[in-house]
Write a structure and sequence with these properties.
By secondary structure, this protein is α+β, with helices and mostly antiparallel strands. Helix content is 34%, strand content 25%. It has 7 helices and 16 strands. The chain has helices at 3-26, 33-46, 107-126, 133-145, 221-230, 240-247, 249-261, and strands at 50-59, 62-64, 81-90, 93-102, 150-151, 157-161, 164-171, 187-190, 193-195, 209-212, 238-239, 265-267, 271-272, 279-281, 284-287, 293-294. A hairpin with a 2-residue loop joins strand 3 (81-90) and strand 4. Helix 1 runs antiparallel to helix 2, helix 3 (107-126) runs antiparallel to helix 4 (133-145) and helix 5 crosses helix 7 (249-261). The longest helix is centred in the N-terminal third of the chain and has 24 residues, at 3-26. It starts with a helix and ends in a 7-residue tail after the last strand. The structure holds cobalt (II) ion. Cobalt (II) ion binds at residues 96, 158, 189, 191, 283.
Length: 301
């Protein structure tokens, strides 16, 4: 990895980490999800970052992919378990990081948050070139199950590429038996999810998160104008709210619907646990080396 690429990863990771911790400080009983999301976005921009994906704030049984809707009225309440997932890029090089805020003193819910955090820490401790995906999955699984929870098996950590949020390899949250090894300078996000329920998520409905998966010629001028803006994301995910802000709800909804029907868009609906168990998550981005570089960890973490 050349120095410039390395520096981009370090900068992206640091901005993502600052935004994550800032977001954590804003998540309180009575605070609005939309308002917190917008403050995090402003912070990322102020720090010179670009969005690798929109800030995601997923509540309770939703593991991931909940993004504030244009007029989102969600307010955090006592008892909520909140996953905050942040993605920042610098010149396409991504920092991806997440944590869980528990708005409760309930012992079990706090243990749930500890489970994903300690699963992440246990994986970070063994990362080096040559470690197998099986070993990573096994240590994540062990930390979660020994606290009495289920790792989510159909969500996984992932490689990161330039403008690619989910690259190879897929880092499992259980032992898949894979003998595939991490290699020097690979950039990966480790993200264990722990659930009080099934440990399997499904795709629900009403996505607000999308990406352009394939370019196609578009006739309608309205849709063409929207698509032109979407191209600036370089295939990275964006959210309906951003498009509404620029084009208005009517035009944005029309264009996204048309693009979806044409097969241009990929949708990412919210992902709840199948048994509607409560879910926690923790995530860091790592550059694999003998002494791994955790780009999204701040000195004070
Ligand atoms: Co990730």
């Amino acid at each position: 990895m050349n120095q410039e690429t390395f520096n981009n990863y370090i900068k992206a990771g640091r901005i993502a980490a600052i935004a994550r911790d800032y977001g954590k400080s804003l998540i309180k009983v009575g605070a609005g999800l939309l308002e917190v999301t917008e403050k995090i976005e402003e912070k990322i921009i102020a720090l010179g970052g670009e969005f690798a994906f929109p800030p995601q704030i997923s509540l309770n049984d939703i593991a991931a992919h909940y993004c504030a809707a244009p007029n989102d009225k969600t307010v955090f309440k006592e008892g909520d378990v909140i996953k905050l997932d942040i993605g920042v890029h610098i010149n396409g090089f991504i920092g991806d990081t997440a944590l869980t805020v528990v708005l409760s003193t309930d012992e079990k819910l706090n243990l749930l948050a500890e489970a994903s955090k300690e699963a992440l820490n246990s994986a970070l401790r063994i990362i080096r070139p040559g470690v197998t995906l099986s070993e990573l999955g096994r240590t994540i699984h062990a930390e979660i199950t020994k606290r009495g929870f289920a790792p989510i098996r159909n969500l996984s950590g992932h490689g990161l590429g330039k403008f690619i949020i989910h690259d190879k390899p897929s880092i499992p949250n259980f032992d898949t038996g894979s003998k595939e090894e991490l290699v020097e300078d690979q950039v990966i996000a480790i993200e264990p999810f722990a659930s009080t329920g099934a440990g399997i998520i499904y795709e629900s409905s009403n996505p607000t998160l999308f990406s352009v998966k394939e370019r196609k010629p578009v006739r309608s001028p309205m849709t063409r104008a929207v698509l032109k803006d979407l191209e600036a994301y370089n295939g990275l995910p964006f959210t309906l709210r951003w498009i509404v802000k620029k084009h208005g709800l009517g035009k944005a909804s029309f264009a996204l619907r048309e693009l979806k029907n044409m097969g241009v868009l990929r949708e990412y609906p919210p992902l709840p646990d199948r048994a509607h168990g409560i879910v926690s998550q923790a995530e860091h981005t790592v550059i694999v080396k003998d002494k791994p570089v955790i780009t999204t960890m701040l000195e004070e973490d």
